[in-house]
Write a structure and sequence with these properties.
With about 110 residues, the protein is of the alpha+beta class. About 20% of the residues lie in helices and about 20% in strands. Helix 1 packs parallel to helix 2.
């Protein structure tokens, strides 16, 4: 489970795709969409009824890829961190499924 998510989500039985950054020189060629779709296909081949999630900030253009692969906007996740990496960090958060997503960003 991604380290940026609240700790209560660690107990959930799901797949969460995150930090799939495309290097600047390769952007705009469809790699993010292709690789995201391939990851989804592999998961569903292994676990046909898997729950698969992904996240990004609203202004990230990768939302286009996520939607075209089949992900649907489903609220917003607000995350808070407390502590320091040297002594430990607690992650708290809330998922509000009723929050509407803003329009997709301009490309």
């Amino acid at each position: 489970m991604p380290y940026h998510l609240p700790e209560w989500m660690l107990e959930m039985d799901l797949y969460w795709m995150f930090y799939a950054r495309t290097k600047e020189n390769y952007r705009g060629r469809g790699w993010h969409k292709y690789l995201l779709s391939q990851r989804v296909i592999r998961i569903l081949e292994t676990v046909p009824d898997a729950d698969i999630f992904t996240d990004t900030v609203y202004e990230n253009p990768s939302r286009f890829s996520m939607i075209s692969v089949g992900f649907e906007p489903d609220g917003a996740l607000r995350i808070y961190r407390a502590g320091h990496p040297a002594i430990g960090v607690k992650r708290y958060g809330r998922w509000d499924p009723l929050v509407d997503h803003p329009p997709l960003p301009s490309t």
